[in-house]
Amino acid sequence: MLQRAARVALSLAGVVAVTWAVAFVFRQNATTAGFAYLLFVLIVAGAWGFVEALIASLAATFAFNYFFLPPIGQFTIADPKNWVALFSFLATSLIASRLSAKAERRTMETLARQQDLEKLYTFSRAILLIGPGEPVPRQLATSLAEMFGFRAVVLYDRRTETMFRAGPDDFEGIEDQLRDAARNGTSYSNSDGTRLIASVRLGSQPIASLALQGRSMPDAVLQGIANLVAIGLERATAQELSHQIEAARQSEQLRTTLIDAMAHEYKTPLTSIKAVTTALLAIPAQTPETRNELLRVADEEADHLRNLIDDSIEMARLDMERIDLQPEDTSLGDLIRETIASMHPEERAIALKEDGECATLALDRRLIRLALRQLLDNARKYSPPETPITIRLGESGGQLAVEVTDRGSGIPAAEQSHVFERFYRSPRVKEQVPGTGLGLSIARGIMRAHKGDLTVASRPGETTFRMLFPVNGQGGAQ
User: Fold this and answer.
1) Staple partner for 232: which of 3, 27, 127, 367, CB 3.0–4.6 Å?
2) Alpha carbon 410 to chain centroid distance?
């Protein structure tokens, strides 16, 4: 209001300035004065609008009559022809100002539509860049509030029956209208169009509804927003389905991989057991010492086979994002010694070095033993048989650390960031050493479930996997 009053005052001052310049400075006739007034009114109409131009036209008409139409200095007109000239001037100035204001309004509307189209384009690009963090409907609502300047946005997803809100203001009391719009395709708006509720359709079927508050907009723009939201929701549904298909594919790959791994891993103990039973059946009259030795070998290989079966079942069970722990007070040193004893250390030297006394930890013994067995099994597979394997237990950076070091050829730097990925096998050894590509990923998952971590450091001739345990919280010291 104050701004308009200032513009009206400036329009009147402009009429005074034109009158002074034409009548007293340049001393021009009535015709020149009329054109000068008309030009000034057009300038006011183009700059500020119709109201200011109307007031300027009336003021110019009075000034034109008083200073330029005889009798000069009076608001009367002696010659009837001058009445025609006066009203022609007034009509011309008013029509011109009206047309100018109308053209300006159309220009502003065109600019507003262009800005809305640019925002729609930006919103469409934002849909393509939606990430996997927050739910897609929440990201859509947030993007709408930010890009279009809405004070409040509520997106109701009919599939999940969930409402997602965005914007600095609250938009309460509209839940029933949103559900009705999502079910029946209805729409609502207040008198000035600043509160809108619209259905979101995919084809002819409503799939969601949208509430917007803070600004009015043309129906075409509102429909464009609704269409883009529908595309975003459908894209999210397609991505979810794709993830389900990928999970099913990986589950099938896991099953096939484990079967292949079992076929490779189980052959060694089964072959040994078969050799023992064949020898006992072929030569029944063996000495007690020989018979006992053969039975001992068969018993050990049967234990080895049982451990392989347990590990395979555990790996299949743990192939999920969430690992449930059953912690109990555990001496990490004793657990390491038990694991070493179960892996036939007489076949391969495994040295344990303890740096001082380690505190008792709350661990899931079964899972930590499985993770450690995976690291020791990897060390045996990827290092020469005549080289030792070293396990060092001690503190590192305020955490307890178990380091498993082998003397193999090492892991290239480019592959070290991939060794913990599921199903990853180095192309250098993929066809030479049997394996699933799951052991290290599951071992890291077990460590992170204990609030710890599993890292690797490798160079030619030495590779160290480090199991890090926190010293407080779950998995911490007691």
Assistant:
1) 127
2) 36
- Residue 65's pLDDT band (cuts 50, 70, 90): confident
Task: Catalogue the E-assigned strands of 289-327.
Answer: none
Residue 253 placed within a domain: no
- Average pLDDT for residues 256-280, to the nearest whole number? 70
Instruction: Indicate which CATH number applies to the domain containing 142.
Output: 3.30.450.40
Number of domains in the chain: 4
In eight-state DSSP terms, residue 477 is B
Residue 46 has pLDDT above 80, yes or no: no
DSSP 4-49: HHHHHHHHHHHHHHHHHIIIIIS---HHHHHHHHHHHHHHHHHHT-
Q: Is the pTM of this model over 0.85?
A: no
Q: Are 73 and 85 in contact (CB under 8 A)?
A: no
More confident residue, 354 or 218: 354
* Closest alpha carbon to 123 in 230, 198, 209, 50: 230
Q: How far is CA 181 from CA 22, 44, 141, 191, 215, in A?
A: 65, 47, 17, 19, 20
In this structure, are residues 75 and 31 in contact, taking their beta carbons and an 8 Å threshold? no
R_g of the chain computed on alpha carbons: 43
Pair (287, 388) in one structural domain: no
Task: Specify which residues 361 forms β-bridges with.
Answer: 330, 477
Residue 441: pLDDT band with limits 50, 70, 90: confident
Residue 366 has a CB neighbour count (10 Å cut-off) of 13
Which residues, 6 or more positions from 451, have their beta carbon under 8 angstroms from its beta carbon? 470, 473, 474, 475, 476
Residue 257 placed within a domain:
no
- The DSSP code sequence of 372-432 is HHHHHHHHHHTS-TTS-EEEEEEEETTEEEEEEEE-SS---HHHHTTTTSTT---TTTTTT
Looking at residue 398, its pLDDT comes to 78
Q: Which domain holds residue 281?
A: 266-317
Same domain for 365 and 440, yes or no, is yes
* Whole-number pLDDT of residue 476: 44
Do residue 350 and residue 452 come from a single domain?
A: yes
